[in-house]
Specification:
Elements: H1 2-6, E1 13-20, E2 23-31, E3 56-57, H2 62-75, H3 98-102, H4 114-117, H5 123-131, H6 147-161, H7 165-177, E4 183-184, E5 196-197, E6 202-203, H8 211-215, E7 225-227, H9 229-240, H10 249-255, E8 267-268, E9 273-274, E10 287-291, E11 295-299, E12 303-309, H11 321-335
Antiparallel strand pairs: 1-2, 1-12, 3-7, 4-7, 5-6, 8-9, 9-10, 10-11, 11-12
Helix pairs in contact: 2-6, 2-7
Length: 336
């Protein structure tokens, strides 16, 4: 009923899963994977139905997967949270560390439209430019949300491990967990459409919505992953239960510890938000992350709550995603 009240008003497609003590207690999928053809909300001739196994652009939930891969490398001694990233990216400001990148306290600007800055450059050239972004704010705080920082963190992992981020996430996170539908650049099959973008020829489907990630080839530390609700649920349950088999319990405890970033509307762990009022609703103290496309993952000591939507289809800025997230969280609180 909650999704039926929101679809297609808030998003043309939505899937919600709630698990309590490891068992799914509520599941719903409704809407159409492609509903509109343009910004005038003209209906598409073919509107395939959404299902529980449909994939959505996770947007910033990708950051949690990047973080898990990085922390796995930390466990293996390949990376260190408090070592200057200049060890792996020579020439970078010595005050920048992975801990500061993962808590958005490295003094980096929020974003760079590198696709517009370097319209004819290849992904590698664009990545080098982002990594070279200068520090323009206080280092160590206050909190300043920055995709640039998470892109840089992902690049540090690539250089240290000698593998592309896509392979790192697969080898250290998705493959060990059996997340077969969680991937970058999936193509359009059974994937929810996102925004109408004239520079890409119309409605985007099966390629990353985020412009920076798209300009970097579809894979970046801050965005790019697509997944189904069941895969995201399994990932959230893994963190809820202590990290096995991808991370040790002590590592997850550090990931979920308040890192002391000041100036945010929530507490911040490593790559993860704690008590974010935009998504947790009545689930006080829950951790997780939201995604610009209309996704969210919320985890408590007992429950894991997944909401996947395409609230940017066919345009961004549609009303209602925050109340929908709160309504799903409230249902999880009722069932817990």
């Amino acid at each position: 009923m909650i999704l039926a009240d929101a679809v297609p008003r808030v998003a043309s497609a939505a899937v919600a899963l709630i698990a309590v003590d490891g068992a799914v207690v509520a599941a719903q999928a409704t809407g159409e994977l492609v509903r509109y053809t343009d910004t005038d909300f003209a209906l598409a001739a073919e509107r395939p139905p959404v299902s529980r196994d449909s994939a959505f652009d996770l947007a910033s939930i990708s950051k949690l997967f990047t973080t898990a891969a990085i922390l796995s490398l930390v466990e293996d001694g390949v990376l260190a949270l408090d070592t200057p990233i200049a060890e792996w990216l020579p020439g970078r400001d010595p005050r920048i560390t992975l801990r500061r990148l993962l808590t958005h306290t490295a003094g980096l600007q929020p974003t760079r439209r590198i696709d517009l800055e370097l319209p004819n450059a290849d992904p590698a050239t664009r990545m080098a430019a982002i990594v070279d972004t200068p520090v323009t704010g206080p280092v160590g705080g206050p909190y300043l949300y920055t995709d640039v920082g998470m892109v840089t963190a992902g690049r540090v992992a690539e250089v240290a491990a000698g593998l592309p981020l896509e392979e790192l996430v697969r080898a250290r996170v998705t493959a060990p967990l059996g997340l077969s539908t969680t991937r970058y650049r999936p193509g359009p099959d059974n994937v929810a459409a996102t925004e109408w973008k004239p520079e890409r020829g119309g409605i985007v489907r099966g390629e990353v919505h985020d412009e920076t990630a798209y300009g970097l080839g579809g894979v970046a530390g801050h965005a790019g992953l697509f997944s189904t609700a069941d895969d995201v649920l399994r990932f959230g349950e893994t963190l809820r239960l202590g990290g096995g088999p991808i991370l040790r319990p002590g590592t997850v405890a550090e990931m979920l510890r308040d890192q002391g970033a000041e100036g945010a509307a929530f507490r911040h762990g490593l790559g993860v938000r704690i008590g974010d009022p935009a998504i947790v609703g009545p689930l006080d103290g829950a951790f997780g992350h939201s995604g610009f496309t209309g996704t969210s993952l919320v985890v408590t000591t007992r429950a894991t709550v997944v909401l996947l939507t395409n609230a940017v289809h066919p345009i961004r800025g549609r009303d209602g995603i925050r109340p929908l997230r709160h309504a799903i969280a409230a249902e999880a609180a009722r069932l817990s």
